[in-house]
Amino acid sequence: MAAVATQTDFIVWGVDQTAYGPVELPTLVAWVKDERVTADTWIYDVKNSSWQKAAALPELQMFFRSKAKGAGPGAEAMMTPRGLDPRALRRIKILAGMTDEQLERFAQFMEVEKVPQWAVIVKQGDHGDSMYFILEGELRVRMNVMGKETILATLSVGEFFGDISLFDQGPRSADVVANADSLVVKISAAAFDELSREAPEIATPFLRAIGRTLTARIRADNKRYGDSVKFGRASGG
User: Fold this and answer.
1) Which residue among 19, 26, 32, 79 sits deepest, i.e. has the most Cβ atoms within 10 Å of its Cβ?
2) Strand stretches in the chain, DSSP E
3) Residues forming a β-bridge with 160
4) How far apart are CA 159 and CA 65, in angstroms?
5) End-to-end Cα distance, the chain
C-alpha cells in the first residue's frame, strides 16, 4: 500500500527523475547528511503545496548555509523537477523573451528526452499529443513516398515541431529523425492544459508566439504558391 502524505511530509525529486517519499523531516535531514539530497535537489513541501530547492527550505537551510558562503550570483544552476536548467530554454526562439522565473515555471511542465542518432522521434501517421523543442543536435523532417525518402526540412537548435498536436492530437504529417545525437524537450497536450489552468500568464504569450510562427509559415507558403502560379502562367503563355 502506498504511503499517504501528511502535512509535515516531504517528497524528494531524485537525479533519476523519480519521486521519493513521502518522508518525514528526520529522514530528509539524514538524506542531506548522507548527501543523497543536495542544495539543488527539488523537494515538495506538502504543507505549503510547493516545490523548492532543498537549500531554500527553512528546515534545511542550516545544513547548506556554510556551503553557500562565498558563492556569487548564478553560482548554482536553477534546476526543475525534471532535471532541466530552464535557462537552456532561451535557445528556443519563441521562448527567448521569457524571464528566468517564467522559464523555471514553464520547464516544470516539460520532459527531457535524449535522442540517439538515426532514432525516429515521431512517425508519419501516428497520432501525437506533444510538441518538441530542440536544445542540442539536428533533426530532419522526412516523408517516404513509394519507398523513397524526401527531406522536407532540417531542424536545428532553437526550432520546434509538433505544435499542431497540442490542439488536435491528430496524425503526424511526417517522420522526424535525428541526424545526430540530440537533446529535446517536449510538452504534452495534457501538460499544456495544466499550464493553461495554473499559469495562464505564461501560457498566453506562449500561444501568441506559436501563432506568430504559424502565421509566418502560412504567409511563406502562400507566397510560394502564388509564385508558382505566376511562373506556370508565364511559362504557358
Assistant:
1) 32
2) 10-13, 19-23, 42-45, 50-53, 111-115, 120-122, 130-136, 138-145, 148-156, 160-161, 175-178, 182-188
3) 133
4) 40
5) 79
133-160: pLDDT as tens digits: 998 889 999 988 777 888 999 998 889 9
Asked if residues 212 and 116 have their Cβ atoms less than 8 Å apart, the reply is no
Q: The domain 86-223 belongs to what CATH superfamily?
A: Jelly Rolls (2.60.120.10)
Name the CATH topology of 10-68. Answer: Dna Ligase; domain 1 (3.30.1490)
The pLDDT tens digits for 91-136 are 888 887 888 888 888 988 888 888 999 999 999 888 888 999 998 8
Grid coordinates representing 68 are 553557500
Residues 9-19: what's their mean pLDDT?
82
**Residue extents of the structural domains in the chain:** 10-68, 86-223
Q: In what order do the strands lie in the sheet with 130-136?
A: 111-115, 182-188, 130-136, 160-161
Rounded-to-integer distance, Cα 151 and Cα 109, Å: 31
DSSP conformational letter for 4: P
- Residue the block writes with cell 516531504: 10
Pick from 181, 162, 179: nearest CA to 170: 162
Q: Provide the whole-model pTM.
A: 0.60
Q: Distance between CA atoms of 183 and 45, rounded to whole angstroms?
A: 30
Query: Residue 188's CB: how many other CB atoms inside 10 A?
Result: 18
97, amino acid identity: G
- In whole angstroms, give the CA distance from residue 141 to residue 162: 11
Closest CA to 120 of 91, 144, 140, 148: 140
